[in-house]
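User:
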Amino acid sequence: AGKASGIKNVAPFLSELAAVRPRVVLSNISLLLPHLDSEPYVLRSAIINSIGHILVREDHSLVETKEDKEEDPGDENGGEESNREKEERQMVRMAKTRKSLFDILCDRTHDITSFTRGAALKVLNDLTEK
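Assistant: Predicted structure:
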């Protein structure tokens, strides 16, 4: 019984964290995705809601890597070009991330539990409205 109540407490926390700090959830999404195959539908639904919060964010600053944060002090002549290249790489990375998350969301519309299927459909509906 303790495990079930723990999951029931973690699920709302995860959804709320994704609403407030989607970057934190996205940076740790690899730890969450294996739980989509776990038994508790409450946790699966919370992960789906978290993915929805991440996808709703429109800004491209959501995905940052260490290489984007580092500045090259010796690159004075090609600084403008390298910034453009960094932006392009970041845009490509963000597009791939969004596609992967959207694919996960679509896959979850076939979940074994109707509650999780409903959560996935609700997130898809929210995405079409925004």
